[in-house]
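Lab meeting, action items carried over

1. Structure of the two-component assembly. Owner: GW. Status: complete.
Input record:
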Amino acid sequence: MATRNRTFMFKRYRDALKTVRLPSYTSDAGGGGPVIEMTNKQTRSYAPLSTIDPGTSSFVGTPTVGLPPAWVDVSEEIAANIQRARSKLSELSKAHAKALMPSFGDGKEDQHRIEALTYVVTDLLKKSEKRLRKLSAGGPLEDSTIRKNVQRSLATDLQSLSVELRRKQSHYLKCLQQQQKESSDGVDLEMNDSGKHSKSEDDGFDGLGFSEHQMAKLKKSEAFSMEREREIQQVGESVNELAQIMKDLSALVIDQGTIIDRIDYNIQNVAATVDEGLKQLQKVAFVSIIFFHLSPSRAKSETRGNGNVRYSTCGPVLSDVGSLNHQGDSLLILLLFNIINMSDA
Amino acid sequence: MVLVSSVRDYVNRMLQDISGMKVLILDSQTVSAVSVVYSQSELLQKEVFLVELVDAISMSKESMSHLKAVYFLRPTSENIQHLKRQLAKPRFGEYNLFFSNMLNSTQLHILADSDEHEVVQQVQEFFADFVAIDPYHFTLNTPSNHMYMLPAVIDPPNLQNYCDRIVDGLAAIFLAFKRRPVIRYSRTSDIAKRIAHEASKLMYQQESGLFDFRRTEISPLLLVIDRRDDPVTPLLNQWTYQAMVHELIGIKDNKVDLGNVGKFSKDQQEVVLSSEQDAFFKANMYENFGDIGMSIKRMVDDFQQVAKSNQNIQTIEDMAKFVDNYPEYRKMQGNVSKHVTLVTEMSKIVEERKLMLVSQTEQELACNGGQGAAFEAVTNLLNNESVSDIDRLRLVMLYALRYEKESPVQLMQLFNKLASRSPKYKPGLVQFLLKQAGVDRRTGDLYGNRDILNIARNMARGLKGVENVYTQHQPLLFQTMESITKGRLRDVDYPFVGNHFQQGRPQEVVIFIVGGTTYEESRSVALQNSLNSGIRFILGGSSLLNSKSFLKDLEEAQRISRSSTGVV
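Predicted assembly:
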C-alpha cells in the first residue's frame, strides 16, 4: 500500500505564501470568533487542542481556542471509571482463583475480599452506566450526534466489561456449587479426594477414629455448605444487577454487521430517530424472547396480541417456577421477576 | 493483493496516529469506499465520533475545536473548493487531509494558500480510490456510465471525465498493490484502448517515480476490456445467490434496499449483504438458488436448536448464560430473518415473472445453437401474457445477438412482434445494441463458434450434458481467464501498450471491464481463484451491472446519439 506524503510540499508552499500575506492580515481580528464554553470544573485532564503556536501568530485574529463542551468531562470520567473497573476486575479474577483453592477455615478473608471487589466493580459499572445517560441530551444536531456516538462507544466498552464480569462470576459460582456438591454428597467422595481437599487434616488418621472423624467432618461440611449457599446467593444477586446494566446498555450498543453499523447509513439517517426506534424494538424483542423461552405454555400465549404478552408473562412463569424443584428456586424467581420488570421499565 | 484488506489498512493508518476525538469527513465517492470495508462500530473504537459529507459539514458554523478533523476525499476541484472555504474559517482543532489519489501542484497551492490559520497538520495521498465490494471484485461507481458507448466526438469533456475517473481508479489499485503493470486492451474497443494508453502514460511517464517500486518479480497484467465484447452476460437472468439478488432486487455497495419490493419494518427495509461480515452469505453467495433454499433451511434448523436450548432455562447459570448469549442470539436471529426474507421475496418474483420458463430459453440462446427452435421459443414467450416487458426485450436482444447474420427476416419478425407487445420500449433499441455490440464490433469469441478449437470444445461440453440448465452459461471472461492461465491470450486481439511486454506468465491479473461488471463474472473470477492455478485474478468495472442498469445505459446512449446526429 503505497502512500505519498505531501505535507512537506504543502508546508513549503504555505510558508512561502505567508510572507506575502502578512501585512493585510490584522484586519479581520476579532471577527466573531467562536465562543468559549466555560465549565465550572477546575481540574480537567483534557488539554485544549491548539495547533496555533501563540508565539508566531499572537497578533493575528486566530480563532479563539474553544474549550471542549462540558460533556467531554463526563465522557472522560466514564472512561477513567471503565479503566478502573477493568483493573479491579483482573484483581477479582485472581481472588476468585484463590478462593477456589482447596482450604478450610480461613476462606473468610478471601470471601470478604471477593465481596468487596465485586461490589466495587459492579458499583463502578452502575455508576458509569448512570453517567452515560447524561451524555445524551439535546443541543445542536452535530453535537448531539457526537454525544450519541461517544455514548455508544462507551456503552460498548461497558457491555464487554459486564459480560466479562458475568462470565467470571458464573464460572466462580459453578465451581462453588460443584465444591458444595462434592462436600455434601457423601463421605466417599470426600475420602477419595481427601488428598486434594484437606491434606493437613487427614494426615495420619487411622481406622479407629474413622466414624467420629467423619461425623465431625459432616457437621463441618454442613456449616460449610450453608456458608457457600450464602455466597451463591450473593453472586446471584450481583449477576442480577449486571443483567440490569446489560439490558440498559444493549439499547445503546450497535449490533455489528447490521445496517445500523454501516457508515453510509449513519450519515443518511440522523441518529436520533434511529436510536429511538432501536430502543423500542429491543424492548419488544427482549420481552418476547424471555417470554418465549421461559414459558411452557407459550403456544397458547403466542396467539395473544403483543400488548398482552407482557402481562400474561408473570402468570405461567410463576406457576412454572413453583413446579421446579431444586436449589436456586428462589433466586430464579427473583431473576425472572427482575427481568420481566426491567423490560417494563 | 486483496482489495478489502488494502482499503481497511489505509483507513486504519489514517486514524491510528491521530489521538483523541475525531470527525471523519468524506465525499460522495469515498463514503462508498470506506463504508464497504469499515463499520460504524469500528470507527467508534478509533474515537471517530462524527462522520459527515464534505458538502454538509460546511452548513454548520459552530466551532468544535475539541475535535480533530480527518478528511478523506477524492482530489476533485469541487472538493478542493470546499476545503478552501472550510480552511479559511476553521471549526476543528486540527485538519488532517487525506486524498484518495494524486494531487496536482495547483491543488496543493490552493490548499496552502487557504490555510492562513495553519491548522493543517498533514496532507497525504492514500490510494483507496475504489469500492472493494468483495476480496477480488471492485467497482468505481462511475457516474454517467453510458459514456463508454458514445463516439468520442459527441461529448468530449464528459468522455474525458469518464476516462479520467477510470484511469485514476486503476492507478490507485496498482499503487495500493505497489506494482506497475504491463497493460493490454481489447483491440476493437476505442475506449478500452484510450484508457489503456492513458493509464500507461500516467504510470510510465507522468508519475513514473511514484510507480517505480523496484520490484524484480514479473509485472502484473492489467487487461482493459469492453463490456460490449460480452453483451450477453448482463442480459441474462441469474440463479446464483449474490447475482440473483442484484438482478431481481438490486445491490448497491453491499446493501440491498427492499423498500421497492414490499413493505418491511424500518430495520428490515435495508439490509447488508457482505461476504466479509456475514459467514452464511460468504459460504453461499455463489451457490445456486435451489441449494440456497436447502442451506437456509439448515440455518433455520440450527437457529431453532439454539432457541430450544435457550428455552431450557432452569438454573441461574442457564439464566446467566442466556443473557450472555443474548446478543449473539439476536444477531443470529437478524441474519436468519434477513436471508429468509430475501429468498422469499425472490421466489415471489420468479413465480410472478415466470422466470424459470424465460431463463431456460435465455440460456439456450446464450449457450447452444439451433436457430429454428430458438425462434419458436422466443415467439412463444413473446405471446405469453405473464412474461414481463423487460424479459421480452431481453429475449429478443439475446436472439438478435446470436442470430444477427443468420436470419435477418425472422429477426425482423421478432422486432415487430416486440414493438406490438411491449410498446413502452423505443423502437430501435435492439438495433442500437447490435450497432454497439454486434459481431463485427466484438473482440473474442463470445459464442465459441469462430474458432475451430472452441467449436470442438463446445461440442464436447454438449455431449457431456449440463448439470443445471439455468446456470450453464459461462461468461466470456471465463474463456479470457483460461487463455491467460494457459498463456494463449492472442496479441492480435489483446495488444500491449507501448513496449512493455510480459516477461513470462503473470501472477496477478487485473481485468477491468469498461462499462461495468456483473456478479456472474465476479463468481467466475472467485471460482477461478479457488483453483489455485498460480494466477490471481481481480475483477473491476466502471459500475456494477444488472440487466436493468445495462439497458438503462443503452437507452441513455441511444437517446444522446439520436439527439446529436443532427449536430454532428
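2. GW to write a short summary for the group page. Key points so far: The CA atoms of residues 138 and 144 of chain A lie 6 Å apart. Confidence is low (pLDDT under 50) at residues 24-64, 186-209, 271-278, 280-345 of chain A.
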